Model the fold of this input.
Amino acid sequence: MNSKEMMDIFAENAYVRTGGSPEELRCAEYIREKCAQMGLQAEIVPFPVDMAAIQEAVLTVDGREIPCKGYLCAGSAEVTAPFYYLRDTSAASLPQCKGKIVMIDGYLGYWKYRDLLDNGAVGFITYDGNINYADEDIDQRELRSYVSKGEKIPGVNINAKSAIELIRKGSATAKIVLKQDEYEGQSRNVILDMPGEVDEYIVLTAHYDSTSLSQGAYDNLSGAVGLLGIAESFVGKPHRYGLRFIWCGSEERGLLGSKAYCQDEETMKKAVLNINLDMIGCIMGNFIAVCSTEEALTHYIKYMGLEMGMGIRVSQDVYSSDSTPFADQGVPAVSFARIAPPNTGTIHNRYDTVALMSGEQMAADIAFLTAFTQRMANAACCPVERKIPDNVKDKLDIYLCRKRDKN
Ligand SMILES: [Zn+2]
Done:
């Protein structure tokens, strides 16, 4: 694939494709077709996901209706209560949530939601967007099942411009009306097998879904194109380790595609390494590798970068992407990304389009990733130890909400 062909793929997939939607399926079929054009037979493998259709979502504050989107999978309810803005989660602030509809900063993660429930909040408000942007967009959020664990209070998401107004005006009373149908739906992984000489394999992953406002060009059609490029380099060439390419669905909804894949313990036993791509090929920014592996791999990648003239910053850590469920199953996992400086490219909004992408940078990033994959796939013995060190395990516990970060 040359850089022009890569840019065409961005143009042909310039649409929103959230996990479990018909558009996600459309993109899965597109990827399967791209594989077929290379003579490779990929398969669409469905897995169940929670879905919801909102009937009504209304936020009223002091009698004024505030534009909002209701949280999917947060149940149906109608609550009126005093409004409270939780500025921090200190012992001074948390008890003030009791009996109130609470607005929080940032994402509603597992521990924040626990804090709200434990302190008696009756509803919640989140916000996103940017007060300096021209749009009034509101992202469609969901109360993820691993966050709610079945305990649901109604919530809405609003634009940051509305949030700042609520505080400026000194809001007193809020009302949330939320009505929705919740049901089980389907998302899908696209899986391509390229068997090797031995019965063990390297798993390459990249998610192809997007968030609700985003065309997800940079995050992460770029990685999906990267996998196509790597697969193409192996066509007709024998390799020692098997390669399994997985274009993951519903990553943006909590790594659901990779989690579904990693559930099968028997398949996992034969996986020696996971190589994950999440955001590459943007016009500006530096290249990184995050190794959820023994430290030795960080040195290997650093040396390879120097050898190939590729600037690369390598760390031993957990990356918020599809590599994490693999590492959690004991499969050494490394994520690669090119990180755009925040003022040249943002994600999870309407601005993540082909305008952020560079065909030349895509080709350069994929060339490095292909070289790395070739080396691993043709190694006499996969050099990465099949063991997750304790310091990485601790980080996995925190990332996967089994332990709370003390900071
Ligand atoms: Zn991503």
The mean pLDDT is 97.
